[in-house]
Write a structure and sequence with these properties.
Mean pLDDT: 77
Oligomer: single chain
Largest sheet: none
Number of domains: 3
Order of helices and strands: HHHHHHHHHHHHHHHHH
Structural class: mainly alpha
Helix content: 55-70%
CATH class of the largest domain: Mainly Alpha
Distance between the termini: 58 Å
Radius of gyration: 24 Å
Amino acid sequence: HPDKPVFRRPLGRISPTEATELYRLHGQGLSMRELMERFDRSRATVYRIVNQRRAAAILARKIECVLSDEFLQEGARERILGQPLAMEKSELEKKIEPFELVGESLLPEYMQVLKTTPVLTREQELDLFRRYNYLKHLAATERHQIKLSKVSASLLAKLEEYLEQAEEIRKLLVEANLRLVVSIAGKHTSDGANFLELVSKGNFALIQAVEEFDYGKGFRFGRWASLNIAKEYARVSGRSTELTAKRAASVASFQRGLRETTADVLAIERTRQSLTQLIREELDEREQYVILNHFGLIGSTIRKNRKTLKQIGDELGLTKERIRQIELIALQKLRQCLSQEQFELLTS
């Protein structure tokens, strides 16, 4: 009777595949009792497996911050995190100056949200960026205390709290500056058809700007973000000129570069495969569909089949506004785990 073995498998042993499935189900909300029954494991074993997986996820996570000398000063934690955020309601309800947008009729609901989104004051912005980078600094520094042989649940909870707080602040910073993207996109196009594409590119540049901004230099984030967004638009608009110049190159130059190009394509393909795998692991099915199709990560690396937000929306039965929102959420998730090489491939 193979289904009724004489010798029961020791409870302390579990295959990597089972451990992965157990952790996945735990993340989906299965109760401890259900996990114990499904995998025939003790409560202590289930907790151990879950905590080891939590620890491995934190250790593997890319955590980067813009360091400041004040992070290393005595009393930094109390000074930076001890007081509540400077986000008084009265300060947030400042009048928003109206602005005209190219293609505004394409996004009536989304534009209305942007027009009523409060702009952060200098003090609020400074406080948010200081907290954001300090929380990531704490997580990156203290995660070295993790020991996979004997995982501390309290340490994991503390590190996860740091990262969750940082994520909330990052979302707030991005959302508070979305109208900046839309405003700059409106100045770079007279054609409403590609307006959403520019907004999408600008959103990615905005997310990157949040990660790189050094609040200690004294200037406002809007200035830094505007430069990043404008640089991205200049890069996009300059592609046709660059391609024309390449076509005008001599056959000899082309032949000399052919071998190098082939090697580059192979390297890009390897990076694309790892990027696609990461997207499938980090995003839900709808987010995967939007990212993979909009950025042309399905099929050949050389001939990217990019779809517009409208095309994706038609396929999913959703509006362009909703697709753009889904894409923004997905990009913010990916920013936390993409390598620089993967990030550049996705945005190129």
